[in-house]
Design a protein that fits this description.
Blueprint lengths: L1 E5 L7 H13 L2 E7 L2 E6 L5 E7 L7 H10 L3 E6 L2 E7 L13 H30 L7 H33 L2
Antiparallel strand pairs: 1-3, 2-3, 4-6, 5-6
Length: 175
């Protein structure tokens, strides 16, 4: 039987999302699909899976090779959503929690790719706001609502870029 749970995590909260998915597996809910904040789980016995996320911004032309790389390291590809890939691996009693990155530099690269994806979207949102929404002098409530939505989106994108860059810089300090 499947169970669906709605929960939002932002781009800079990938480690919290990984931890939550791992805790759900320990409760017997195995993650199987993600779509716009809606997680689908199927029930099983509690399992010691560790979940990790990776962000791959490039096209699908090398997707099979990308997934094979993780599978060769013992990771199972569970799902993907807009560049985010969900992997899981059984936790062994003798080792520490498995990581998908062998060094901080590789992990920092994930966040760099994410920032390189977010910046153009942010700039397009600002451009739309400045060229279409803001110059419209209409005093209708519909246009006013759109203005506030765009101001909110601009703020969210800016905050996301700052938080992801902050994570990237913290990783780069250590190497």
């Amino acid at each position: 039987m499947n169970k669906r749970i709605f929960r939002l995590f932002f781009a800079w909260q990938d480690q919290a999302e990984e931890k939550w998915l791992t805790e759900m597996a320990e409760q017997g809910l195995l993650f199987s699909k993600f779509q716009f904040g809606l997680y689908t789980f199927h029930r099983s016995e509690p399992v010691g899976y560790v979940y990790k996320l990776d962000y791959k911004a490039s096209s699908d032309h090398d997707l099979e090779e990308y997934i094979t790389l993780f599978e060769d390291a013992g990771w199972e590809h569970v799902d993907r959503f807009h560049g985010w890939h969900y992997f899981r691996k059984m936790k062994s009693a003798s080792e520490e929690e498995p990581e998908i990155y062998s060094d901080r530099s590789s992990e920092s690269q994930k966040y760099k790719s994410l920032v390189n994806f977010l910046i153009p979207i942010f700039l397009m949102t600002v451009a739309i706001f400045l060229t279409i929404i803001e110059p419209n002098n209409s005093h209708s409530s519909f246009v006013s609502i759109f203005k506030w939505i765009y101001v909110f989106l601009i703020g969210i994108y800016l905050y996301a870029i700052v938080r992801v860059r902050w994570k990237m810089r913290n990783l780069q300090k250590d190497f």
